[in-house]
């Protein structure tokens, strides 16, 4: 007769403490006092964080101006024909009023609505190897339908690069130009690792259909920061991308004259274009969601703590009372 194995054998044996679930373990009992205390603690932590975050967001000053419709000539009925006609001037002038003091640096963004950069075919239409390595200039297998033009490879290839934003902005205050600094508007990691310093645009926007901005063939891709910003695709159909920075303080009541070129075609897909001027705080740009989320969770925790406290005081329950077990309850009292 085979010898019987004793409990607590070797770790790999069937009768070890691990397999028999006899290891020491912490089994907390969630008493009403513990539950109420945890809810109160979470509320005490979350509500102040929410208030501070919301206050920081409310300190951000933003000027948002939609101009895609306003910059179309008044007698134009076909907006698509207007934007596709190169003989029609696309120059437009807009006037912005500064609502509050805006301390430098002031971030200049362009915002696009209803533009799906996250579309699967659009996102895949690029060649990361070509962007990094000049020896991979002909690697355009993943760039359809913008891989080649006139029998030669396009650098940078793909739909993303082809559709780069090409509206331009100029700012004037009190007859003085406000220069826009376009240096370091992209991620440092993108400039140093994803776009080669010895890779230059070639055969770009030379096809029959022009998508967006043209690139300087004498500047490497790592220096073309507008392209780098655009190539970091957005996850949502409404997004903002950094255009530059203004290193001049703006005062409340200042009038800013914006001279822009309305080149980018958003009319074919019912998109919208907006110019955004924004300050920032330690939390970043204007976004009330984080503060409201903390306040909501903290408020909910306070409410649950209050509700459990009332329940505990009005209808207390003895801990470990077997009478509450379903099989011990009186059927007539159910």
UniProtKB/TrEMBL annotation:
Residues 126-145 are annotated as: Disordered. It is found in: Membrane. Residues 126-138 have a biased composition (Basic and acidic residues). One of its GO terms (cellular component) is endoplasmic reticulum. Pfam families: CDC50. The keyword Aminoacyl-tRNA synthetase does not apply. InterPro entries: CDC50/LEM3_fam. It is a multi-pass membrane protein. The keyword Nucleotide-binding does not apply. The chain crosses the membrane at residues 34-54, 292-314. Keywords: Membrane, Transmembrane, Transmembrane helix. Its main location: membrane. Belongs to the CDC50/LEM3 family. This is ALA-interacting subunit.
